[in-house]
Amino acid sequence: MAPSAVRDGSAPSPSAPVVVCESVVRIHRHGSIEVQALQGLDLSVERGEMIAVVGPSGAGKSTLLSILAGSDAPSAGRVRVDGWDLGGLSASGRVRYRRDVVGVVRQQTSRNLVAHLTAEENAAMPAALAGRGRKARRAHAVELLDRLGVGDCARRLPHEMSGGQQQRVALAVALANGPRVLLADEPTGELDTTTAHEILGALRTVSREDGVTVVVVTHDATVSDSVERTVAIRDGRTSSEVLRTFSDDGDGGSSVVAQEYAVMDRAGRVQVPREYRDALDLTRRVRLALEADHVSMWPDGGR
Ligand SMILES: Nc1ncnc2c1ncn2[C@@H]1O[C@H](COP(=O)(O)OP(=O)(O)OP(=O)(O)O)[C@@H](O)[C@H]1O
Fold first, then answer.
1. How many domains does the chain have?
2. For a pocket test of ligand 1, which of 27, 30, 62 has the largest count of ligand atoms closer than 8 A to its C-beta?
3. How many angstroms does the Cα of residue 209 sit away from the middle of ligand 1?
4. Which residues pair with 162 in a beta bridge?
């Protein structure tokens, strides 16, 4: 249990979103140069939900993930994960948060694992750092590896495994301390399509069966098209979301209905997608009209 100093004394309600970002700003400063990686980002993720985060290079995806992972801090705004206020973490709180609340899987399979340790030793290491007994942590490591389909790799070193096997072991490491939130940065980036599907299936199992909230940053359509919510980040803000409903078509196949939404911030600001702006020449000023159940928008009309 985290101390009240970082959790603000209240246990998170089971129905409250696990991840809440409100107007998050992250500014990187190098001498006189400032880069605003996040510019007022809002995001909320429910318990047990699995979302994909997409966006062009430089949009702020990795910065967001680093903040959620507790390895970077917001310059302004509010970030809460499972009741932890990440803007106000002490050094020891940060260590506990990273050890107990979040698990992280990175793109580079080689960076996820310690090269001279076997799969089992890698998967047992987080529990060792948390002070758990040797026997219990090894048993848990073996159980996790089995569950992720790499039990037969327990005695192998990372270089003796395929990329997909290494990512499954990395997932076991990330899950070893029972995190509430799993953060994955391009987890399928170095894998072929079949293996990417397998890793995706493993992430989905973790979210559905264990109630772990999963946030996946990805450029891979295999991943982003197969989750129920994909959040797009542009210029350091959440700009749009795609919500999908999957259903069985009765013949053993499945169908999907996808609907795109623009995200509105607290001040009512909405980013109109570039293709809409270009198609109708929507520039500095647009005309709005409130209808019974929607709002219409027209180009200025040259006045
Ligand atoms: N440590 C840093 N120092 C200075 N600028 C940074 C730093 N980290 C990120 N940035 C800048 O912040 C912006 C957002 O970067 P970020 O890595 O979060 O984007 P991204 O969406 O993850 O991009 P990619 O898809 O290429 O990984 C970029 O302009 C980047 O150059």
1. 1
2. 62
3. 33
4. none
Residues 281 and 270 sit within 8 Å (Cβ to Cβ) = no
DSSP H helical ranges for 72-192? 91-100, 109-112, 119-129, 134-147, 163-175
* pLDDT per residue as tens digits for the range 203-229: 998 898 889 999 999 988 888 888 999
Please state the pTM of the whole predicted model. 0.88
Residue nearest to atom 6 of ligand 1 (CA): 28
Q: Which atom of ligand 1 is nearest to the CA of 236?
A: 14
Which domain does 286 fall in, by range? 272-303
Distances (CA, A) of 121 to 145, 153, 167, 176, 243: 11, 11, 15, 11, 39
Q: Please check whether residue 284 lies inside any domain of the structure.
A: yes
Residue 6 has pLDDT above 60, yes or no: no
Q: What ranges in 211-273 are assigned the alpha helix state H?
A: 221-224
- Cβ within 8 Å of residue 62, ≥6 positions away: 185, 217
